[in-house]
Structures are given as C-alpha cells and as structure tokens.
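User: Modeling request: complex.
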Amino acid sequence: MNKLGAILFMSLLSGSMLLGDPVDEGLSLQATEQLKVHTRAMIQAGVASPDAVKMTRAMEDRQFPVAEILRAQETVMKALREGLPAGPLLSKVQEGVAKGVPAQDLTRAMERTRSRYEHAYRNAAALAGSGSEANRTGEVIAEATAAGLAEPDADRILDRLRTRTKDRIHLLARECYLTAKVMAGHRVPSEAVASTVCSALQSGYRAQDLETLRMMFMKRAKLENPTQVAMQYMKRIQNGAPLSGLDGNGSQGPAGGASKPGGSNGNGPGGNGPGGNGSSGKGAAGNGKG
Amino acid sequence: MKTLLLLLALLAPAAGAEHLVIRDGRHVRLILLSSEASHVQFASSLDGFVVHDVVPKDRKTWEVRLPSQKSFKYFYRIDGKPWIPDCVCRESDDFGSENCVYEPGM
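Assistant: Request completed. Predicted assembly structure:
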C-alpha cells in the first residue's frame, strides 16, 4: 500500500512538473513574485494564460519598470471588470513594444484605449441592451473614435439612432459608425462626419444605404478632397436627394460650387451631370456653409 | 519630448520610400519601394501587431499580401524604426502618432 502511495505521489509530482506553471515558465528569471502574482490575477480575471504571459514578458523584455507593468496589468483587469474586451489592450501593448514606445507612454495609451472602449460599449448598450450584438457595435464605435470621431459627435449619432425603430438597430448603428470611421480616417472634421451621418439617418437611410454611401465616399475621396465630398453629401441629403443622386454633377471640381441649402443642388429628378444618376446637380459641389 | 520625437520619427518619410496599395481579388498587396531601406518589417492589427520580416522581391521592393475583405491597421519598421506611409485613411495610435487603416472597398 505504501508502495502504491509512493508511486501515486511520484506520478502526480512528475505530472505537475511536466505541465509546469505557465507564469513561472513564461516570465523571465528576474520576474518578481509581485509580478507573478499579478500575472496570475490577470489569468483569473479572464485573460488567456498565454496572452497574459506574452504581454507581461514583452514589457519585461523591454526592461519596463515593474510599476509600469503592474499598471498595464491593472488596466487590463479594470477593463475586464467593466465588461470590456481585453484584446484591444493586449494588442496595444504589442503595438507599443513594436514601435519602441516608452513605458509611461504605453500605459497612458492603454488607459486611453480602455476609456475609448468604455464610452463605446456604454453607448452601444444604451442603444438596445447588452450582448454580443451590442459588443460588435461597441467595437465599431471605438474604431470610429480612434479614427478621429470626437465622443460628443459619436453621441450625436447615437441620439439620432435612438429616434429610429429598434428593429435591426445594431446593424444600422454599425453601418453608421463604420461610415463615420472611414470619413474621419480620411481627415474629414469630426463635426462634419457626424452631421453627414445624422442627415442620412434623418432622411431614413437604412443600413444598406449607409454602406453604399460609404463606398461612394471612398471612391470619390481617392480623387477629390474628402471633406468637400462629405460636405456635399450632407447638403444633398439634407435637400432630399436620393442616394442615387448624391454623385451627380457635383464631381466637377474639388472646390465645389457655392450652392445654398435648398438651392439646385441635386435634389431634383432627371439628371444631366457626368455621373448621370438622377441628379440635376447644377452647382452641386456645394460646400456652402449654412 | 519623447512622444514628440516618436511622432517625428513616424511621420518622417523614409528616404525615397513610396507606397502602393493594390487590390488583387481576395487580397490586397501593400508594396513598399525604397532604395535606402535594408530591413523592412510589417505589423498589423490582423494578428495583434506581431512584427514580421518582409522578404524583399528585389533590391528595392518589399511586398505584403493580406486578405482584402477585412479592415486592418498597419505600420512598417524600416531598419528598426517605425514608419507609416502617406496613406489616405489613418487613425490615432494613442502614442501621439498614427497607423494606416485599410478598409475593404478602398
């Protein structure tokens, strides 16, 4: 019996030695006990153990001060406590390490990222409850704000979305914020981005319409001033132009005309512009203010 | 100050570097042309910014091929220094600089 017990004990011991501890094995030999404890805490909080070790080790290898590594780990755990994904923060660490960013700048960037996701996920949940659909929307809102959409402008779009029926609202929201992301990424000022998207929503655009609008924008932004293209779309949408009429005669020049709202800028039937798609389009590059 | 230096390093054009984005069916080809670069690396959000060495096609051409149906952010490292091309769509990287953004349909 004693022999059997000894064999059992030995096999358990060798099994645990074979498996090892991912934290002990993954971190450097110089890793402090405090760092190991915090890395295990990250794993307990829900970060996959290879990811927790990889993040910590990457910062160790760059010889970041332990205090900054602990701060970074705390930011990840805080995000998880708030129901936010850890992925963008882990990715931010790898990005910062690859760019040779100093420790403090990296932990600040992680906090900015966490804060952006907090805002985005809160807004997405406010739209129509939490869950995977809301999380996907939150992801797109976070990307849009990273691209340059200011949070108050993201909130404006949200307010406009709330006036729409709840049916497939997340799909519509994602198309709105994807469009906003693309426009902001093209350096269109945030306010103009939000006004364009809000005008589309006000005019009853559906998810598919916003996708089309985004594709049209990207195509024209290759050749023209993106801000003027966005402003022109906004004016034409506000003047009641159908989606098919947005790209009418307005592509005549990046400076655009001086059309006034309510003027002949593409909301009529017919069409004689080079785009030839249903817009009367005279003076329609309209980027007139007001 | 460090952030400013990083920003300048990222925005400074690599000597004589040109960048092309070409959609090729299901793939997008990112082509870097530089006669000055000797070691080019690439990192993107598609795999959490793992840095990959880019194998040169010839003495001045480096090409990365990625799926074209998914949005991603990216940057290069040229001879160890981070570098972003003059791309049409960008985003803040939260470090005081930016990443290029690829969107399907671009």
